[in-house]
């Protein structure tokens, strides 16, 4: 689906939305069983950075991350091999969601800075094999709705003329809609950062993005009858997801204020000295286990973090622009690991469970 079509404004919008809701009932169940789940946020950030660099639409970005999540949940994959898998997910998602001229080229991917620092070169043959492995894993079905597929349909009705701002009539309806758009897409990106959001339906996450934005913008009521009828979700259906989003927002605000108040020269070094024997220092990287208690038990080792440090140096500005206060680090020059051939890659993939169980029906009422 290309965003230029703006299906959510057409006569078939309700039918398309209902079709997406039916398709999300058939999505595989995410179990969060990957041994490399501590690396997930790194690769979610990497895919977001590359999507921005190649100007891919949000649906392609979210689909790429979702494909990676499902694959990691299905296979035991070595950390270094996740680079090839992540890039393959990005290519498949962009081929499915974007125009042909927007799909990243192999030469472009090989020229990326972190690819060079890892001494990693992709070739067409191995990339095709990886894409085939991914497609077989997903049963050759890439039509998997994500929150990004629902967001524009819900956003189209996110602000109404009768809404109140801080208890008063809105002075500028157009400005309020513009702010609503920014906040909603901010929360949409928040949902990519934490795999906890995969426990909710994609449409539920999209609806929660709208509700969380209305709360932050002090628009009342926080959830209207019109939004209930449009999305099929009541306030009670969304509260848990909204709480996660608002918690992430609060953490972002605190981190942004902390960064502003901390002089640059007093901030800790991004990477401990190689001559230091201290084990308490950790590199200032994107993944912060303390900020996500429910995944801290899967925290990566220091060597794994250092091996993934090139991700941070790709584009710090992107993460700052798309998520307020996202933790970034100065570029780090880690040891250059060797990347195995495709035969080694294939042998390193251990299937966890061949079948991808499907989600059951939801208790949510359909209007």
From TrEMBL:
<feature type="region of interest" description="Disordered">
    <location>
        <begin position="255"/>
        <end position="283"/>
    </location>
</feature>
<protein>
    <recommendedName>
        <fullName>Cyclin-J</fullName>
    </recommendedName>
</protein>
<comment type="function">
    <text>Essential for the control of the cell cycle at the G2/M (mitosis) transition.</text>
</comment>
<comment type="subunit">
    <text>Interacts with the CDK1 protein kinase to form a serine/threonine kinase holoenzyme complex also known as maturation promoting factor (MPF). The cyclin subunit imparts substrate specificity to the complex.</text>
</comment>
<feature type="domain" description="Cyclin-like">
    <location>
        <begin position="153"/>
        <end position="247"/>
    </location>
</feature>
<comment type="similarity">
    <text>Belongs to the cyclin family.</text>
</comment>
<feature type="domain" description="Cyclin C-terminal">
    <location>
        <begin position="145"/>
        <end position="284"/>
    </location>
</feature>
<feature type="region of interest" description="Disordered">
    <location>
        <begin position="343"/>
        <end position="367"/>
    </location>
</feature>
<dbReference type="Pfam" id="PF00134">
    <property type="entry name" value="Cyclin_N"/>
</dbReference>
<dbReference type="InterPro" id="IPR013763">
    <property type="entry name" value="Cyclin-like_dom"/>
</dbReference>
<feature type="compositionally biased region" description="Low complexity">
    <location>
        <begin position="261"/>
        <end position="283"/>
    </location>
</feature>
<keyword id="KW-0195">Cyclin</keyword>
<feature type="domain" description="Cyclin-like">
    <location>
        <begin position="45"/>
        <end position="136"/>
    </location>
</feature>
<dbReference type="InterPro" id="IPR006671">
    <property type="entry name" value="Cyclin_N"/>
</dbReference>
<dbReference type="Pfam" id="PF02984">
    <property type="entry name" value="Cyclin_C"/>
</dbReference>
<dbReference type="InterPro" id="IPR039361">
    <property type="entry name" value="Cyclin"/>
</dbReference>
<dbReference type="InterPro" id="IPR036915">
    <property type="entry name" value="Cyclin-like_sf"/>
</dbReference>
<dbReference type="InterPro" id="IPR004367">
    <property type="entry name" value="Cyclin_C-dom"/>
</dbReference>
């Amino acid at each position: 689906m290309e965003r230029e079509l703006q299906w959510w404004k057409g006569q078939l919008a309700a039918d398309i939305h209902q079709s997406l809701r039916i398709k999300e009932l058939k999505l595989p169940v995410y179990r969060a069983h990957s041994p490399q789940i501590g690396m997930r946020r790194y690769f979610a950030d990497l895919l977001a950075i590359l999507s921005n660099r190649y100007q891919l639409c949000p649906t392609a970005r979210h689909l790429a991350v979702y494909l990676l999540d499902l694959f990691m949940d299905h296979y035991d994959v070595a950390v270094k091999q996740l680079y090839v898998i992540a890039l393959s997910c990005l290519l498949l998602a962009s081929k499915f969601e974007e125009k042909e001229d927007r799909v990243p080229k192999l030469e472009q991917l090989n020229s990326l800075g972190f690819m060079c620092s890892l001494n990693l070169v992709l070739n067409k043959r191995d990339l095709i094999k990886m894409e085939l492995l991914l497609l077989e894993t997903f049963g050759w079905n890439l039509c998997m709705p994500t929150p990004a597929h629902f967001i524009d349909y819900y956003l189209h009705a996110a602000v109404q003329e009768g809404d109140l701002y801080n208890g008063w009539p809105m002075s500028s309806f157009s400005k309020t809609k513009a702010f609503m758009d920014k906040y909603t897409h901010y929360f949409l990106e928040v949902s990519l950062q934490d795999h906890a959001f995969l426990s909710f339906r994609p449409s539920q996450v999209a609806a929660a993005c709208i509700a969380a934005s209305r709360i932050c913008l002090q628009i009342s009521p926080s959830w209207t009858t019109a939004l209930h009828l449009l999305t099929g979700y009541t306030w009670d259906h969304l509260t848990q997801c909204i709480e996660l989003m608002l918690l992430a927002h609060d953490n972002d605000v605190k981190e942004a204020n902390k960064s502003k108040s901390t002089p640059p020269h007093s901030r800790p070094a991004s990477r401990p000295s190689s001559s230091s024997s201290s084990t308490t220092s950790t590199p200032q990287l994107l993944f912060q286990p303390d900020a996500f208690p429910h995944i801290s038990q899967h925290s990566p080792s220091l060597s794994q973090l250092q091996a993934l440090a090139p991700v941070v140096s790709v584009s710090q500005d992107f993460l700052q622009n798309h998520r307020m206060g996202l933790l970034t680090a100065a570029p780090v020059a880690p040891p250059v690991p060797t990347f195995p051939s495709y035969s080694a890659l294939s042998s390193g993939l251990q299937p966890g469970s061949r079948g991808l169980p499907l989600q059951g029906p939801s208790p949510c009422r359909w209007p």
